[in-house]
Amino acid sequence: MKSGTSSLHAYLQSHPQIFMSEPKEPDYFVQVLNWGRGQEWYESLFAGSERAVARGEASTSYSMRHAWPGPAKRIASVVPEARIVYLVRDPIERMLSHYIMLRKTGKEQRPAEKAFREEPGYIRTSSYWFQLEAYLEHFPRERVFVLTSEALRHDRASTVRRVWEFLGVDATYVPEALSAERNRSTDRATRTLAGSRLKRSAALRAVTGVTPAPVRRLFGRITLKPLKVTDVPISAELRAELAALLQPQVRAIRPFLDGGFDGWGIA
């Protein structure tokens, strides 16, 4: 989550030999989400893919085992020959982007400093080895490919070509949309903390239900602002604490990345 999966999904979807599911994130292999819909439902998402060399989907829930355990085992039971592409990002920057997403949807109202200290899901989602080792229990090392969103952003052509090679599709294909990034948190307006609390106010909802549209639009302009990762303050002390906690996780995934990987300055 929040590591560039929307962009990678778009590149994969554009390849003439690859068929990607619609929706992007069917969440089938999460038991409490869509596992109960059955394999026939899942297979229906790939109808028309008979001529594809590779088929795939991009459910970020599959790398959140602290919240939804077991996807790796279920994937192996249904698609034992699967190839796993795991996209990772500077883990602290990922947490900040995750926070912005939840702020935008109104699910997070705490300041980032407080949220990161109180909600373990932020750091667990960024604990990449913890997430990855579940797959290595069910898939051989050669069928697991780890890449960084930084490489995808700064060296897209070479990085995408490595993905094609891993999947066994035509590696000479260059997506037309290679210059585009999808679903960037920094491109969105996010409600201020005060605005978020006001919006959730029962009294305000009652009032705005009958307020003229121009007044509602004015409220939106006042309480919405573009929010970037750099706009979310966390102290140097907390950043150092997070880096110390994440260091073993980053160190453990180093063997899966090329020699130019800098460990995000963490390990």
What does this molecule look like?
This protein is mainly alpha-helical and 267 residues long. It has two domains: 155 residues, Rossmann fold, CATH 3.40.50.300; 38 residues, no CATH class. 46% of the residues lie in helices and 8% in strands. The protein contains 13 helices and six strands. Helix 7 packs parallel to helix 13 and helix 10 packs antiparallel against helix 12. It is globular, with a radius of gyration of 20 Å. The model has no long low-confidence stretch (mean pLDDT 88).
What labels describe this entry?
13 helices, single chain, 267 residues, globular, mainly alpha, two-stranded parallel ribbon, Rossmann fold, 6 strands
Q: Span from first to last CA? A: 21 Å
C-alpha Rg, in Å? 20 Å
Detail the poorly predicted runs: none
Number of strands: 6
Give the neighbour order of strands across the main sheet: 1-2
Strand content: 5-15%
Helix fraction bin:
40-55%
Return the domain count.
2
Q: What is CATH's topology name of the largest domain?
A: Rossmann fold
Largest sheet: 2 strands, parallel
H/E series: HEHEHEHHHHEHHEHHHEH
Report the principal-axis shape. Answer: globular
CATH class group of the largest domain: Alpha Beta
What is the tally of helical segments?
13
